[in-house]
Specification:
Blueprint lengths: L1 H10 L1 E3 L3 E3 L2 H6 L5 E4 L10 E2 L18 E3 L4 E3 L6 E3 L22 E5 L11 E7 L4 H17 L5 E7 L2 E5 L9 E5 L6 H7 L23 H4 L4 E2 H13 L18 H15 L5 E7 L22 H6 L3 H20 L1 E8 L6 H10 L4 E4 L5 H11 L9 E10 L3 E7 L3 E2 L19 E7 L5 E7 L15 E11 L5 E13 L5 H6 L3 H18 L5 H16 L1 E3 L2 E6 L7 H9 L11 H11 L4 H8 L2 E5 L6 E2 L12 E5 L3 E6 L1 H8 L9 H20 L5 E6 L4 H6 L9 H21 L28 H12 L2
Parallel strand pairs: 2-23, 4-8, 9-10, 9-14, 14-15, 15-16, 29-30
Antiparallel strand pairs: 1-3, 3-21, 5-6, 6-7, 8-23, 10-11, 10-13, 11-12, 17-20, 17-22, 18-21, 19-20, 22-23, 24-25, 26-27, 26-28, 28-29
Length: about 800
């Protein structure tokens, strides 16, 4: 496994098969597709930044790399992708084996080029805040406080604008500082660029061009008109803070039996139109802060009548959601507009109810946007995540804009598509596969927004056919890949990052051991999670559990070591031994089991999965569990209910949630205050250690995970209370009951992730001080027994 981590550290790539099946037939037999998870902007130490343009192949446009064959005498280099021989230009004529340019150094398989020809002024980033005002005063207060902190952290030269919405959409004119001034639009319909130009007076007192597209100052739009709505943060900080401070709840009355009139879609349409008019092609982000469901105009997800429930997964399966398809169609159109403009849609959804994340998913994901889901604008998940976007330092996001991602590969490989935050540029070519996954039928994609952790999953198709000619000489048994990422660096300049890699292929019946040696089970689990999520959303009547089980059985049948019809003889190589465990936990994860999750939550989980690296995806699929006790130092333990003990603290990291779980004895000692006594300093340190480790996890992660602190047996008092009528209790007892309810429901975050090896109907009792899980799910041991029996048939 360490060699795969070394390859990732060098190029930012993890592949399912690092020794690839050489023919289409071999690839089909391997079950797990040939795929790569690539992080285009992964921080790589000592990566060279070359101040000149890359040297490209005349035929396929691949960039010169360490895998190019160089004739130093004739000053010619051969392209490893199309085998074209290219002459070096004049400024490379001093090249020799002792005088190599950086792009030919073997250790620089990933390299960056800075654009030196671009002499245009640096375009500052643009942030358009779109703020929901249909909330209670307390929530608006939390949001105003968070926005005020974010404004202080904005780069001085960054352009900023503000739109608020409720029943109507208000565009605030920040350039008019004498008194608050805004333009109001109806929330019942979309707004076009032409309407924006006419109704907001962009050509007030000046002649409007009669022909051509009006977009930005370079196309005739007066700069002073743009500066009325988009101003540098340093110039409008006072006005912006004043407007934010005076924000109030939407004044339109709401009857008791109706929902608020919230025109989220219309507000986003106005924001996209303004940015398209003022700053097309510049790095810009629409940051939407939404506190409830859209009920008005385009993109509405539910009616205003409170008796009409918001759609659930069951409603989506039945097709009884007339507003869902309409809203998705609207956001698909909005995503095309934003991708064309090069702009990003970010969503901060903070409400106990659903807000429409499932409908907005297409626009957020295709523009490379950020999504944060929390219960309240006062919750640390929202507040800390928002500040993390603008903070600079060791764990900053390194936001970049206007990316274009291209792929070159050997002619025997085809590209099925990409699963991740990007949009197809529909650049068709011979490398496009007939089978399409995600954003396919292209070799170029637009990435309007990307950061240091943005990861793409590329799925390949082995096009090489089997036969005697499939076994070539060893020198030709290489597949080459080249990933090119053009992007606007956060310093404002354009850059090109080029990653070139090679993987060996094997063909024929005796290739099992070599394929097994190159199998990356963590990358395979991450790819399978993205694939099953994609299939669940796009294929009718798809059974994810059956698909995962059949894939695992076929994989184990091919690569397992066993005697026919003898399950006890079944063994797996260490290279594959953990993969069944990943699939077992994936079957139980929030990506597959949508029960008890809303469509918004499911969409949120899948969006985060589709943009994260292999390491992060593995934590989402199979959380890590660390135990703390007096008997030993902190140590990883099995994700099993048997890990619970009365004298142990557990730290569970499930990516979205970090849980600190205290055994019952630990909780009693803590409640007695022993950790405050000098003679029990060791106990104080034991309590502190998991909290410190949890803080480290939270500090490094985005979106910021939820921290849950709970105790074992936190529900016992509830059982006693349930036998009495609540009306007989005074306020103190009610508070105690709420406290116990809180700890019980917090403990579910841990119990839901553990392997149920001991349940309420198990024949084996729990160990003293242990716990049981009330579930009918099969345990991992039963799962493996079934797998062995089916794999050897």
């Amino acid at each position: 496994m360490s060699e795969f981590l070394d390859l990732e550290a060098q190029d930012g790539v993890r592949m399912t098969w690092n020794v690839l099946p050489g023919t289409k037939q071999d690839a089909a037999a391997c079950v797990i597709p040939a795929a790569a998870i690539y992080t285009p902007l992964k921080p790589i130490p000592d990566i060279p930044l070359l101040p000149y343009a890359p040297l490209r192949c005349r035929i396929c446009r691949a960039v010169l790399s360490p895998f190019s064959v160089v004739d130093y005498t004739a000053k010619i280099w051969g392209c490893p992708f199309c085998f074209q021989r290219n002459h070096f230009p004049q400024h490379y004529f001093s090249i020799s084996e002792e005088n190599l340019p950086a792009e030919l150094f073997p250790q620089y398989s990933t390299i960056e080029y800075a654009s030196v020809a671009d002499t245009s002024p640096i375009a500052p980033p643009v942030f358009m805040f779109v703020v929901d005002t249909c909330m209670i005063e307390e929530e608006i207060g939390y949001l105003k406080s968070a926005l005020a902190q974010a404004v202080e952290l904005l780069p001085e030269k960054a352009l900023v604008g503000l739109i608020t919405f409720g029943t109507f959409v208000q565009v605030h004119e920040l350039g008019f500082g004498i008194l608050p001034k805004s333009y109001v639009f109806k929330g019942t319909k979309e707004v076009t660029k032409e309407q924006i130009l006419d109704q907001m007076g962009f050509f007030s007192g000046k002649k409007k061009p009669s022909v051509g597209v009006i977009a930005g100052s370079r196309d005739g739009l007066p700069a002073e008109s743009i500066s009325r709505f988009l101003l540098p943060a340093s110039e409008c900080e006072f006005v912006l803070n004043s407007v934010i401070e005076e924000l109030q709840k939407d004044p339109w009355p709401v009857p008791a039996d109706l929902r608020s009139s919230r025109c989220t879609g219309a507000a986003l349409s106005v924001a996209a139109a303004i940015l398209g008019v003022c700053v097309p092609g510049s790095g810009a982000r629409i940051m939407a802060f939404v506190g409830g469901p859209s009920t008005e105009g385009p993109g509405a997800i539910v009616s205003k009548t409170l008796t009409d429930p918001i759609r659930s997964h069951k409603d989506l399966d039945k097709g009884s959601v007339p507003l869902f398809d309409k809203a998705v169609k609207f956001y698909e159109g909005l995503s095309k507009q934003l991708v064309h403009q090069g702009h990003v849609l970010d969503l901060f959804a903070c409400a106990l109810d659903q807000v429409g994340v499932a409908e907005m998913k297409v626009a957020i994901e295709r523009t490379g946007g950020i999504v944060v889901l929390a219960e309240s604008f006062g919750h640390a998940v929202f507040k800390d995540s928002l500040l993390r976007i603008f903070q600079s330092g060791e764990h900053d996001l390194g936001l970049c804009f206007n990316g274009i991602f291209e792929v070159n590969c050997s002619k025997d490989l085809k590209i099925q598509g990409i699963l991740g935050p990007c949009a197809s540029l529909e650049k068709k070519g011979p490398l496009c596969s007939d089978m399409v996954v995600g954003q396919g039928s292209t070799t170029a994609w637009k990435m309007c927004g990307l950061d240091r952790k943005t990861s793409l999953c590329l799925v390949f198709d082995i096009a090489r056919q089997g036969g005697p000619e499939a076994l070539g000489p060893p020198a030709s048994n290489q597949f080459y890949f080249q990933f090119l990422t053009y992007y606007q660096h956060h310093d404002g300049r354009m850059r090109l990052r080029v990653s070139t890699l090679s993987r060996r292929w094997v063909a024929g019946p005796g290739n099992v051991e070599e394929l097994t040696a190159g199998f990356d089970q963590e990358a395979a689990a991450a790819v399978m999670a993205r694939l099953v999520s994609f299939k669940m959303e796009n294929e009718d009547d798809f059974d994810p559990i059956r698909w995962l089980d059949r894939s695992l059985i076929r994989l184990c049948s091919k690569f397992g070591d066993y005697q026919k019809e003898n399950p006890s003889s079944f063994t797996l190589s260490p290279r594959l031994s953990i993969f069944p465990q990943f699939i077992f936990n994936l079957r139980r994860s929030q990506f597959v089991q949508v029960f008890n999750n809303s469509p918004d939550e499911t969409a949120y989980f899948r969006m985060v999965l589709d943009r994260e690296s292999v390491a992060s995806a593995v934590v989402m699929i199979q959380p890590s569990l660390i135990a703390y006790s007096f008997q030993s130092a902190a140590e990883p333990v099995l994700l099993d209910v048997t890990a619970i003990a009365v004298d142990r603290i557990l730290l569970l990291d499930s990516y979205f949630t970090v849980v600190v779980f205290h055994g019952s004895s630990i909780a009693q000692w803590r409640n007695a205050g022993y950790h405050n006594q000098p003679e029990h300093a060791a106990f104080a340190q034991l309590l502190k250690a998991p909290r410190d480790d949890a803080d480290v996890i939270i500090k490094e992660r985005f979106p910021v995970p939820r921290l849950v602190i709970c105790d074992q047996y936190g529900s016992q008092v509830i059982i006693i209370f349930a036998q009495h009528e609540l009306l007989h209790f005074d306020s103190c007892v009610m508070q105690s009951m709420f406290f116990c309810l809180y700890y019980f429901f917090q403990a579910r975050f841990l119990l839901a992730k553990l392997n149920p090896s001991v349940t309420y109907n198990s024949s084996n009792p729990p160990q003293p001080g242990g716990d049981v899980i009330f579930t009918d799910d099969v345990s991992f041991e039963v799962f493996m027994d079934h797998l062995r029996r089916l794999a050897v048939q």
